[in-house]
Design goal:
Helices cover 42% and strands 10% of the residues. It has 361 residues and is α/β, with parallel strands linked by helices. The chain folds into two domains: 2-290, Rossmann fold (3-Layer(aba) Sandwich), CATH 3.40.50.970; 305-355, no CATH class. The strands form three sheets. Strands 1-2-3-7-6 form a five-stranded parallel beta sheet, sandwiched between helices. The two termini are 37 Å apart. The model has no long low-confidence stretch (mean pLDDT 91).
Amino acid sequence: MCLIRRFEEEAGRQYQRAKAGGFLHLAIGEEATIVGTTSAMRDDDYLIGTYRTHGHALARGTSADAVMAELFGRDTGTSGGRGGSMHIFDAGRRFMGGYGIVGGNLPLAAGLALASQYREEDVVTVCMFGDGASNTGNFGETMNLAALWKLPVVFLVENNQYGMGTALERHSAVTDLSQKAAGFGIEGERIDGMDVLEVRERVGRHIEEVREKGRPSLVETFTYRYRGHSAADPEVYRDKSEVEEWREKDPIESFIKVCTDDGVLSEEDVEAARREADRTVEAAVEFADGSPEPSLDSLYEELYVVSETMGWYAVDERSPEPHRGELGEDAPEVARGLAESGAAHAEGEDAEQQSRPGVRD
């Protein structure tokens, strides 16, 4: 939890420095839900999240170097610098990604669970999503199929009480989100998402019940994000006093108190953990900053699933010889030449602007 908190704080700082591009959604305050859930999972279980998933990847064992490099858009990132903050991915650790579309990961989770069922694997898929996603059409359709097919998946709502800038009671007729799948026959439970021990115990129980009985369940973790919906959020929809009230329930500080009161950790242990998190994150920034950007030659790689039997996804008409858009890496020389000339021209314009008097970086 210390590592996730420190990583998120630094990610926000690097975003302000324009080192990280695109969008940035931080999970500061939600560490107990992330760590409590992932600590109850087996290595062969699948995890899929939304667009606030830096911490999920870290908790599954992905290196801070690779996650930070992805935020920086570098070739050494988890998605080769192509996805950025909202598309962290580590198939080797069965973290099947973050997704920018609200509710878009729900049917994908059902597909992962269906694949496990089809292969007769003793594997559970955990699908984590926000409260806003519980209002999408994908939610109802996925709950229906998961219940109908008895899929081994735990749907976990990270209810941080705001769908972007809209409070829960203003966007959901049913505010107890653990009950929103009851009409499909999926049992639900609401738990304290700020208590890592409660999350670990209760989510762990759901995971094992799903594994044994082969049917889905729904868990709502009641948590809070201390920062805005994204780095661009002015946060005009909630009072600062509300944020401060929730900070008093900080999941990290609460867990530290439990551990020190019970003699499990000393103050020295706590400080050592904080220092280790600092070192790891500082090294991640240095690694990301020193990593190369994806090469121009890789522009068309991994855009499509290519097979011999499918039709064309797209037609590239940048040259007199149109070709399949999904095979851009095999584009005719004319098309490749145009792309390279365009990139060189853009670089030349940038250099010319930098050389003009009065123009500063």
